[in-house]
DNA sequence: ACAGTTTCCCGTAAATGC
DNA sequence: TGCATTTACGGGAAACTG
């Protein structure tokens, strides 16, 4: 017998969320056709924390048509439920570990009778991490990656009590794979270098290659994320999610530089003509944001590097990023809108890069079912244009006062209705 | 003994969703202090469809401190689960009714021994509707409203096999109450009249008052909603939800006319000066939308009535409606933005009405943690401005072609990344 | 008090049943 | 096949619990 597989989240095997169905399969590697329908397999989970497996947890092995007659048993619709003991609380034997570093084994047990002799057989999955909420996925998945990157041991559930260090090369490969496995593009050397600086701090390339990375609670954890209260993995996962759900085509095209430090950004943009811009991810936002940075000349002819506040999934829901780029305008003192974005770095005209990803402008057209006799106009189509007003034109928004009060958080919506500011008199 | 109460959704008692906790309470109206801790109550549900009650379903009555010593038992953390029978399928005795019209009774049973005589006592809740998904709530709640509007019968579970008709006056009161019970404002006569026209078609006021409304499958159901595939109740519920979550303050102020026909809108706006506008709900969108309609003069001096495509919750998430109103612009042929909105009907300057609900403009400010030595600019704040470009300036968006292809649905997001249009050559 | 963790449950999407 | 209904589960928020 041998290693079973453990799909759940399609892209995140070996992480199981309580209450969510998972599937797994055992195969008998040695062929014993005569045992067809003879082996009854039982799935269990280790007892370090008390989980119950719900669903049909015993099954008889049978021959796979597809796989040249080897015996297998597939368990579907299994779920895990934590058994809170009477007095409550976690029944964790190793309370020193946080949940996402706690490793568990799914075991498969059976008995074979051979020449009157009972033989107990047992095999198990690779270590799995059990989570209770999807928000634990990024860290759980990081644990799976770290384990499989650094050991071939099939069942070292105490791996994280003393996690081994990894080299930057190993980490870089794994990071790039997070992108290449779910999009058409992995990470470039430049992108990886930016991430390395984030994780390792400033050092030379040679040093980086030699450097050994520590696990979560150290370099990859909260501490190195400048006390922002979320781990590197959470930050990166949200970016991967942003890429997959909102800007996949642009990412696949290679239009998104993404990971680039502000210093390097300035260095490569400064020599470029005004209007040259690049796209990069927000470094500070946990939820994953993307922004553009461009070169322009100020009134004195001095080169300026500008960025807009990063766009989040929230905003990308009502407008695609390509459309935001194409439509973005700066409002000048005479209320004229001009786009500061002309060439995607190095020198691709923005229309060439993003035009094809914009939906066509809808021409005004009578509303369906509208009364042809009436002269009521059809609905006017609205374009949300992202505009950055120049300070000199704030007077165009008469009642919106110009306060120093900057609230850098994202636009959280409806609170202004619930907590109206006091009216001015 | 008497009627228990049945909270679940705070505002929607008597609707229970399977798998969601609910609470109920029985009180003994006659005082028998000597029975304290003597009466064991059991909760059950009728057997018309087979539901199981999960949770602690027996409890002993005890004295309430708060309620001058009457006996009561409160059941918390109860949930309902449908027991699918072996062969699958609904075990509904009355298959003619749709789920949201199927009424069930929660019963409370107990036994009293009095002078050696066993007395079975039983009471029950008002009829409840059991749903399995929250999307069934609007129709389920409508059933509860209809039942309680038209009968005092405590347990007529077959009510909807032959639902009685209601008068418009009754319906109007209930509709208004849907607003007044969760906001500070019910419906005006004008708003109710619009709804009446929607439900009853064109008729005089006198006729309306006399008119009797039929239940769901007839006037209040899909049919009268012009084959749009959703019931009046779903439409109205989404509007109530929109009001509560996104425009509560504006609603409470009475700024939202909301329910007004396009004809009446034209009639009241036409005599008004250009720039006069009103706010009304979308009539065609299931998800609840709100738009503004204004008067303007075209180049020939002719009065025009214009509306924008309604804003949905999706869009109101990233920008409050007050801000949308304040910022909305029409782009003229010279790229100048002008606001067509000046006076909220009848003649309230828009700044006076909506200014206080706009968040203050944030002045540009260095990013926290930014390097003071560098000349990298802080993030520029973005304002999403809703702009309606005039046809003559479509050339300002060079690669967004002007096609006749109008897609009236809401902006569903990221599809443009997944299904890019083919590039032009 | 507080942080790590789990539970609750809406709302969308998919699956299922009739 | 199509429609009615249920199930699945991510994600935000509240509740829990040492």
Provide a descriptive summary of the structure in words:
The structure is a homodimer of 425-residue chains. The first copy, chain A, is of the alpha+beta class and 425 residues long. Helix content of chain A is 24%, strand content 26%. In chain A, strands 14, 15, 16, 17, 20 and 21 form a six-stranded mixed beta sheet that branches. The longest helix of chain A is centred in the middle third of the chain and has 15 residues, at 232-246. Chain A is elongated. The model of chain A is unreliable at 1-7, 362-376 and 391-425 (pLDDT under 50). Chains A and B meet through α7, α8, β16, α9 and α10 of A and α6, α7, β17, α8 and α9 of B. The structure holds a DNA duplex (18 and 18 nucleotides). Chains A, B: One of its GO terms (molecular function) is sequence-specific DNA binding. Chains A, B: Residues 251-341 form the SH2 domain. Chains A, B: Its main location: cytoplasm. Chains A, B: It is found in: Cytoplasm; Nucleus.
Quick structural gist:
The structure is a homodimer of 425-residue chains. With 425 residues, the first copy, chain A, is an alpha+beta fold.
């Amino acid at each position: 017998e041998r290693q079973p597989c453990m799909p759940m989240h399609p892209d995140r095997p070996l992480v199981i969320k309580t209450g969510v169905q998972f599937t797994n399969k055992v195969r008998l590697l040695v062929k014993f056709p005569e045992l067809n329908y003879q082996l009854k397999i039982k799935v269990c989970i280790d007892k370090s924390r008390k989980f119950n497996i719900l669903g049909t947890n015993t099954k008889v092995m049978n021959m796979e048509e597809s796989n040249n007659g080897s015996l297998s048993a597939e368990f579907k619709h299994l779920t895990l439920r934590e058994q809170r003991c009477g007095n409550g609380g976690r029944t964790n034997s190793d309370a020193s570990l946080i949940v996402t570093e706690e490793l568990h084994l799914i075991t498969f047990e059976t008995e074979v009778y051979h020449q009157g002799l009972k033989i107990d057989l047992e095999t198990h999955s690779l270590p799995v991490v059990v989570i209770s909420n999807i928000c634990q996925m990024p860290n759980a998945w990081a644990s799976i990656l770290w384990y499989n990157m650094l050991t071939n041991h099939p069942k070292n559930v105490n791996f994280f009590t003393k996690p081994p260090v990894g080299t930057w090369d190993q980490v870089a490969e794994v990071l790039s794979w997070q992108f290449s496995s779910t999009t058409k593009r992995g990470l470039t050397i430049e992108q990886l270098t930016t991430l390395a600086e984030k994780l390792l701090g400033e050092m030379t390339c040679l040093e980086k290659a030699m450097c050994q990375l520590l696990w979560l609670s150290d370099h990859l954890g909260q501490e190195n994320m400048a006390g922002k209260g979320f781990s590197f993995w959470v930050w990166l996962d949200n970016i991967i999610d942003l890429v997959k759900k909102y800007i996949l085509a642009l990412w696949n095209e290679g239009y998104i530089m993404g990971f680039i430090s502000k210093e390097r950004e300035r260095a490569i943009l400064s020599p470029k003509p005004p209007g040259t811009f690049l796209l990069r991810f927000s470094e500070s936002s946990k939820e994953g944001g993307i922004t553009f940075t461009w070169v322009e000349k100020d009134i004195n002819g001095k080169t300026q590097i500008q960025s807009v506040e990063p766009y989040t999934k929230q905003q990308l829901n009502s407008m695609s990023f390509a459309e935001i780029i194409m439509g973005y305008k700066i409002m000048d003192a005479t209320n004229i809108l001009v786009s500061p974005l002309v060439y995607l770095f190095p020198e691709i005209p923005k229309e060439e890069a993003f035009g094809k990803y914009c939906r066509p402008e809808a021409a005004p057209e009578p509303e369906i079912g509208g009364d042809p006799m009436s002269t009521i106009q059809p609905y006017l189509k609205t374009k949300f244009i992202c505009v950055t007003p120049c300070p000199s034109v704030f007077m165009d928004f008469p009642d919106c006062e110009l306060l120093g009060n900057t609230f850098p958080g994202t636009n959280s919506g409806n609170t202004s209705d619930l907590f109206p500011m006091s009216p001015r008199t």
